[in-house]
Amino acid sequence: MTNMIKGKVWRFGDDVDTDLIIPARYLNTSDPQELAAHCMEDVDPSFAQKVQPGQVIVAGKNFGCGSSREHAPLAIKSAGISCVIAQTFARIFYRNAINIGLPILESVEASAEIKDGDVVEVSLEEGKIINHTTGRIYQSKPFPEFMQKLISTGGLISYVKLRLTEKEG
User: pTM surpassing 0.70?
Assistant: First the structure.
């Protein structure tokens, strides 16, 4: 993963809960591709068929609210989404996303102004969000270096494995 992400936007509203991200009827699997096939289907039944690798979700406030299932960010990441931008995130979703290496950024202005289909570019290092469709630039809080490494290695488990290998070598 790179510190720069660029992709077309999928726009969702406020209070997108984990049941909307991955409906409970699919929680009998932890297979990432199976989860991806049903990602967001109760909000947009065509999402899983139309989403392209590298695209970005932009949503309103309280994204990922509801139950604490780890399946939700895994479904999003496995569907090919490279980043989620929202006004705010539910705390447990935020942590679960970082743990699996899915970058998420909070920006009130970007959340309010970026539209479905816009093309955005995100610098995780700087926390900068550029809307190439409108020319607007937004600022979110950049990830600390540790969290950038955690995300770039693919999440917490991959990061820990890497660190253990470094210590052995």
Answer: yes
**By the 8 A CB rule, do 54 and 80 touch?**
yes
Name the region of 91 (left: φ>0; alpha: ψ -120 to 50; beta: rest).
alpha
Distance CA 168, CA 152 (A): 21
C-alpha neighbours within 13 Å on the C-beta side of residue 87: 16
Q: For strand 56-59 and strand 4-11, is the pairing parallel, antiparallel, or unpaired?
A: parallel
Residue 131: phi and psi, rounded to 5, are -90, 105
pLDDT tens digits for range 6-23: 999 999 999 999 999 999
* Residue carrying structure tokens 């600390």: 144
SS3 string of 16-75? CEHHHHCCHHHCCCCCHHHHHHCCCCCCCCCHHHHCCCCCEEEECCCECECCCCCHHHHH
What's the rounded Cα separation, in Å, for the pair 158 and 152? Answer: 9
pLDDT (tens digit, 9 = 90+) per residue, 56-92? 999 999 999 998 788 999 999 999 999 999 999 999 9
Other CB atoms within 10 Å distance of the CB of residue 137:
12
* CA separation for the pair 13, 58 (Å, rounded): 8
